[in-house]
C-alpha cells in the first residue's frame, strides 16, 4: 500500500540541516556528529544522488509521537524518502528498559508509532520499518562494537547523563550506559549514510561515527574498502522543540503534544504551556526559550518565518500566542489525524508492515554480519 496523504510542504524544517564534522584520525579521539553550521550542503549532496544514500533513524516505543518528533525528524524522513533515498526506521524496543524496569504496553506503542509514520506520509512499500527485537543480528554486531569504545567515553555522554537525571530507576543499569553503542549497530547494520535526528542524538551519533572509524581501522578489508560508512546527522530547523514545561518535549516526561491528540486536547495542552510575563511576543530562543519555541511551532506549521509570527502577535501576550499556536497546530495536523484515523481501523495491516520490515532488516543485517565475521577472521 502506498500512503497517499500529507502533501504538506516540508516547511522551513526542510531546508535546515547540519553536516557532520571532520573526523579525527587518532584512535582515541571521537568523531563529532555535527558542526553548529546550518548547511544545505548535505541536502545538496543527497539531491544530486539520492540513490547513493541510505537513512536510518527511529523512535522508542514509549508513547505517542509528538510535535518535537514531527518537526525534529519525521518531516525530514518523509522529504528524503520522496527524494528517492532508501529509508530504514528502527523501533528500538529494548531501549525502553534503559530508564525504567519494565516496558509498558510495548506492542500498543509500537503499532501506534507505525500508524503515525504512515499517517505523515512514509511509504511502507519503500521503507523498512522494524523492531529491534525482531533482528537478532543487531545484537551480534553490538559485541565487537562495545570493544571499540571506552568506559570513559560512555560515561561522559551528555544525553545519557540527562536521561539518568530523568530516569524512573534508583540505580543506573548497564543498558543505559551502553545503548548508544546499540544504536551504532542499529545505524551501521544497513550502512546508513544519513541520520535525521533531534539535537539530543548528536552525542550518540558521534559514538556511531567513532565506532565505524575504529572498526574500519582495526579490521581493514582485504580489498581496501571500508566496511562501514561514517553517517552524518541531519538536524531540522527545530532540533530541540520544548515541551509544555519548558524542557525538551519528550514522550516520557508528561510535557508533550501528541500528533494523535484531538483538537480540544491540543488546545488544553498548549494553554498550559509555560511562557513568561512579558506582554510583547518576540522570537529570541536564547533569552526567551519557552515563548520562542511556541512561536517557532506556529511558524513551522504555517511555513512562515518565526519573526513574522511574533510580529503579528505583537503586544497580544501569551494568551494570543497560545491561540495562534493552537490554531496553527490543529490546522496543520488535521489531514494527518484524519488519515491516521482511517489507518487505525486496520491493525492487521500495521502488523504486516512490521513483519515485512523485519524480514528485510534481517536479510540486510545478516549480510553485514557476514562481512564483519569475514574481516574479523571468524570461522
Ligand atoms: P523518550 O522520552 O521516551 O526518550 P522522546 O520524546 O525523547 O521519548 P525518542 O524516541 O527518544 O523520543 O527520540 C526519537 C527521535 O526524535 C530522535 O531522533 C530525537 O532526537 C527526536 N526528538 C525527540 N524529542 C525531540 C524534540 N523535543 N525536538 C526535536 N527532536 C526530538
Ligand atoms: Mg528520548
What does this molecule look like?
The protein is built from 14 helices and five strands. The chain has 379 residues and is mostly helical. The chain has two domains: 25-240 and 347-376, Rossmann fold (3-Layer(aba) Sandwich); 261-344, Tyrosyl-Transfer RNA Synthetase (Orthogonal Bundle). It has a three-stranded parallel sheet. Strands 4-5 form a two-stranded parallel sheet. α9 (202-218) links the parallel β4 (194-196) and β5. α4 (106-120) packs across α13 (317-343) and α5 (137-146) crosses α14. The longest helix is centred in the C-terminal third of the chain and has 30 residues, at 347-376. The protein binds adenosine-5'-triphosphate and magnesium ion. Adenosine-5'-triphosphate (ATP) binds next to α3.
In CATH's first tier, which class of the largest domain applies?
Alpha Beta
Bound molecules: adenosine-5'-triphosphate, magnesium ion
CATH third-tier fold name of the largest domain: Rossmann fold
How much of the sequence lies in strands comes to 5-15%
Low-pLDDT stretches: 1-25
Number of domains: 2
- End-to-end Cα distance, whole Å, is 42 Å
CATH architecture of the largest domain: 3-Layer(aba) Sandwich
The helix-strand sequence is: HHEHEHEHHHHEHEHHHHH
Mean pLDDT over all positions: 91
Helix fraction by DSSP (H/I, runs of at least 4): 40-55%
- Tally of helical runs: 14
Largest sheet: 3 strands, parallel
Task: Note the overall shape.
Answer: globular
- How many beta strands in the DSSP annotation? 5
